[in-house]
From TrEMBL:
Segments forming domain Radical SAM core: 254-491
PROSITE patterns found in the cross-reference section: RADICAL_SAM
Protein name, per record: Radical SAM superfamily protein
InterPro entries to which the protein is assigned, alphabetical: CHP03960_rSAM, Elp3/MiaA/NifB-like_rSAM, Radical_SAM_N2, rSAM, rSAM_horseshoe, rSAM_sf
Gene3D superfamilies: tm_1862 like domain
Annotated GO MF terms: catalytic activity; iron-sulfur cluster binding
Length: 615
């Protein structure tokens, strides 16, 4: 069904271009010639979704198939949703403005726990029953992937199947299975049976969860022997061989990352103990610089973008960074294309590079020491010292930079008020470094922006057993820092601790949270990560109504033998390794990165990337 959006509606909402489509390089296909229609849904607004590389890659991979047409769908902003509901307009795709309920698949990418109510709201807006138990063969299959899919138990009531890990190959295997199933006349269940044994596919309906009297999990087990006991994530072994879009959509409107995004590698050699990405994406696999240069040229030609950014978890760990950057500058400088280098380590090479790359505008520099004291940085295995940071700041100030962002986390395991003091002291030392820089060298108008987020214990990290600080404690720490950081050059900002609390609940949640999510959605919760829409009181009402204590999930320290809702998911990194890392944290012992020494995390089973180089 094609949906008609009147000009009157478009004129009455903020940023109509979020809904019109037709951008440069978007894909159009003849509907008579495709047999699978896939609605790729990003549960946030257009500007955020379009900045996401994973969505761009999978859009391209699906549309490379002759038999499949993948279209994009974003969450309508609240003003548009209101108009849609008033005029009975269902959720629609950007390419053909078709109602998503007529598609074969609705696929969500789960980047952030706080988007879960948007997932439910989008299903509701599309006019299909949000609970999978109420959907029939007339309705599309609803699937999801992305980092939150590694513990997507809170969404188990709503999603038919999850894809774990990197999607490029597994999504094709699912589409192939669908082609066979579609003409067969078999039930929906039989399709799920067909894909349940594809590596990386998790069908939550095929697993039972039993609980102990104290609310912890007793067992998670497959309902039949034919389903895998452990669901193993997928990785792409050779990134040079896998398809990467050489034409990307160029939006008409400003988006968060409006530039070419060049993905250098996946995974991370470091093992910061709070960082989920550092474990779930292991092992590190790099693209060759030759391949990246080729891609950059093609993308620049097909988009006309004037900026390329290098994206990966810690860009400066790319082993051919110098070659790549020199090659890119040679090719791109004559075309006046800027290179943006986020999260680089500041040493003399990178400063030289940044000066060349940012001739016109010096953007702010970002450092993430994460903790205020060396002791706590050792606890979290953050391999930077105060000396590193201050040296980098000195080089940057001498190079004319004068805006610095410092990221810290509060509420980390073992944290004391001395560590919090350390945040203020380190920030002030950065100001001192600027003051010591000769006036003729440094830029004008120093601004040190200090921000703190609150520690959220995440699955598959060495801190998955830890308790989160209570909201009150987090607020006290923020208040304390606010007093300490008063000064002419320093600005302090912090994350909403109420949002961090809910994130902690959902991140380590189990299936019982499905009813809370549903109740919260019914109370109008959506866009929970957007401060202005976050309704904490409604969430608390939803927990009360369902008889569920959120503190059980956020603020409880787990014992090592507790069974987690994600224990049947296999990311390669073993629980044994994570336990060992947890213990080392308490002894303040650091673990070297993968290039220095392999510490046997378990990711070797994937037989790819850095693990093979070392063994
Ligand atoms: S197996 Fe070794 S090299 Fe591979 S990711 Fe784990 S620690 Fe790093």
């Amino acid at each position: 069904m094609k949906v008609k959006i009147s000009d009157k509606i478009l004129q009455s909402v903020e940023k109509p271009s979020r809904y019109t489509g037709n951008e440069w390089n978007s894909v159009y296909k003849d509907l008579d010639n495709v047999s699978i229609r896939f609605a790729f849904c990003f549960p946030d607004v257009y500007e955020i979704g379009m900045s996401h590389l994973g969505m761009r890659i999978l859009y391209h991979v699906l549309n490379e198939r002759k038999d499949t047409f993948c279209e994009r769908v974003f969450a309508p902003w609240v003003d548009m949703e209101q108009k849609m509901r008033e005029s009975n307009i269902p959720l629609f795709t950007l390419e053909t403005h078709s109602s998503v309920n007529s598609f074969d698949f609705i696929g969500f990418t789960l980047q952030y726990e706080m988007s879960y109510t948007n997932v439910i709201n989008m299903l509701d807006l599309s006019g299909i029953p949000v609970l999978k138990s109420e959907r029939t063969k007339e309705h599309p299959f609803v699937c999801a992937g992305g980092p939150c899919a590694y513990n997507a138990e809170p969404l188990a009531d709503f999603i038919d199947f999850f894809m774990l890990g990197e999607g490029e190959e597994v999504i094709n295997e699912v589409m192939d299975a669908y082609v066979n199933w579609k003409g067969s006349g078999e039930s929906k269940e039989s399709f799920l049976e067909m894909i349940a044994n594809i590596e990386g596919i998790y069908v939550p309906g095929f697993y039972n969860v039993e609980y102990n009297d104290d609310g912890t999990i007793r067992a998670i087990s497959p309902k039949a022997d034919r389903y895998p006991e452990k669901i193993k994530k997928r990785i792409i072994k050779d990134l040079d061989k896998v398809s990467f879009p050489d034409k990307i959509i160029v939006p008409f409107t400003d988006i968060v990352h409006d530039r070419i995004m060049l993905e250098l590698f996946r995974g991370c050699i470091r093992g910061c103990r709070f960082c989920q990405a550092g474990y779930i994406y292991r092992p590190v696999r790099e693209r060759t610089s030759g391949k990246l240069l080729e891609l950059a040229e093609k993308l620049q030609e097909s988009t006309g973008y004037e900026e390329i950014s290098l994206v990966s978890l810690s860009t400066s760990d790319y082993s051919h960074l110098r070659d790549l950057c020199t090659g890119l500058m040679d090719k791109m400088e004559p075309k006046k294309v800027n290179l943006s280098l986020p999260s680089l380590r500041v040493d003399s090479f990178s400063m030289e590079l940044m000066e060349k790359a940012q001739k016109v505008r010096k953007s702010g520099l970002t450092f993430a020491p994460e903790a205020g004291s060396q002791r706590l940085r050792d606890v979290i295995n953050k391999g930077v010292t105060e000396e590193d940071l201050l040296n980098s700041a000195a080089i940057a100030f001498a190079g004319g930079w004068s805006t610095v962002k410092l990221y810290f986390m509060i509420g980390l395991p073992t944290e004391t008020m001395e560590d919090i003091d350390g945040i203020a002291e380190l920030s002030k030392k950065v100001v001192d470094v600027y003051m010591k820089t000769p006036k003729d060298k440094r830029g004008k108008g120093l601004s040190v922006n200090v921000s703190t987020s609150s520690f959220v214990p995440k699955p598959f990290t060495p801190f998955q057993w830890e308790a989160q600080d209570s909201i009150e404690t987090l607020k006290e720490k923020q208040q304390y820092l606010m007093e300490k950081l008063k000064g002419k050059y320093i600005k302090y900002s912090w994350h909403d601790p109420y949002i961090s609390f809910l994130e902690a609940v959902l991140a380590r949640g189990d299936r019982r949270l499905g009813k809370v999510l549903y109740a919260a959605f019914k109370k109008g919760c959506k866009f929970d990560s957007w401060g202005e829409h976050f309704k904490f009181d409604s969430w608390i009402e939803a927990f009360d109504q369902c008889g569920i204590d959120p503190h059980f999930y956020a603020n409880r320290k787990r014992t090592f033998d507790e069974i987690f809702p994600w224990d049947h998911i296999d990311v390669g990194v073993t629980k044994k390794f994570l336990k060992r890392e947890n213990e080392k944290a308490y002894f303040e012992v650091i673990t070297p990165n993968c290039r220095v020494k392999c510490t046997g995390c378990g990711a070797l089973v994937f037989d790819g990337g850095i693990c093979n180089e070392l063994h």
